[in-house]
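Progress against Task 2.4 (sequence-to-structure conversion) is shown through the following example record, which the project officer requested during the mid-term review.
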Amino acid sequence: MNHSFDPRLDTALLEDLYDDDAEHALMAFNDFLKISPALMKDIELELANGTVEVFRQKVHKLKPIFSYVGLPGMTHTAETIEKKCNDAVRTDELKILYADLKLQFDKNYPVIQQEAGKLATM
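Structure tokens generated for the chain above:
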């Protein structure tokens, strides 16, 4: 692929996933941009509702899409949250971990937007 990904993303992972297929990469990035904000909002609502198992399920649903856009650190954070849910009685116990995920999401979402824009012009 004649595209070098933003260094804030795991470029080796992205090159392994998409090789020379910019169209496939763009599809994954666009899916992330379309789906992830609503999923994050759902997760936040479940955190407020206090249902640990439903919160865990929502995090589980979101977890893999971070890696598809070169954010395996966020996949790991989501996995940590998921594991912590097994020990948690109330979602209050998960707020700090969720705050970290939200911070990472807010920081990285514009990077994914930028990359999708670059991929769209290839």
